[in-house]
Amino acid sequence: MAGEGRRLVVADFAISLMWVSSNELIKILVQGALGNGANQLEGDIAKWALSLLNMFVIAYISTLANGATYNPLTVLATAISGDFSNFLFTVGARIPAQVVGSVYGARLILLTFPGIERGPHLNVDIAKGALTEGLLAFAIVIITLGLAREITDDFFMKTWISSLSKLTLHILGSDLTGGCMNPASVMGWAFANKHHITKEHLIVYWLAPVEATLVAVWLFGILFGTKKDEQSDVKKATSPQQKSKNSDQPKSKKSDQQKSKKSD
């Protein structure tokens, strides 16, 4: 069990590094191919198509790595609805690994291409930025929880809906906050730019998304129930007492019918 946990932490680190660096590589490739046209509609379509392909590749690697991922919000949402030991493991090991992986991913891409744009920018005040990132995080957590509940075996459909949702939400928030929905990724760029302890970064890109995640998990649990509720229902249905009750019901019906025949 401990070995599996270590492998999962290492995989979180590696996938987070890949996520940060690959997203910037997409921008560099499109910029190099289209030049000034990279900022036009043609460039945007190319970046969106490559981003969708990148999300599919990362999602496939994640399945091979037993659920390793790059976003603290999704693992936090799962950990909140799980047991306490899993919550401690997520907060104490997996999320830090994702942050460190993102930091090294940002440093790697900056060392390779020192003249590139350095991560997301907050283009509004702190209140609007926190509200934007909070709403985006709330939406993506609700979508993630819903997909995990309703679609379990269809990798393509699950990844397609998730990737398209992330891309759409990113576009909606890109002009305001960067549409990040990923505190670890933002932390990587903020650390590289030495802006990781500023009030704007902590409130907009950490506090607001984490609070939105907590609200999303709480609301989803109220509307649809949690895994614990489903497990308790299964245990009740398969308990010996419940089975005996179910087996006694037909017998009682037969005895009632026999009594009614005798009285007739």
TrEMBL record:
Predominant place of localization: membrane
Biased composition (Basic and acidic residues): 245-264
Cellular localization per UniProt: Membrane
Keywords, ordered alphabetically: Membrane, Transmembrane, Transmembrane helix, Transport
One GO CC term, this protein: membrane
Transmembrane intervals: 48-68, 130-148, 203-226
Protein origin, superkingdom: Eukaryota
Region (Disordered): 229-264
Gene3D superfamilies, per the entry: Glycerol uptake facilitator protein
PANTHER family documented for this protein: AQUAPORIN SIP2-1-RELATED
Name of the protein: Small and basic intrinsic protein 2
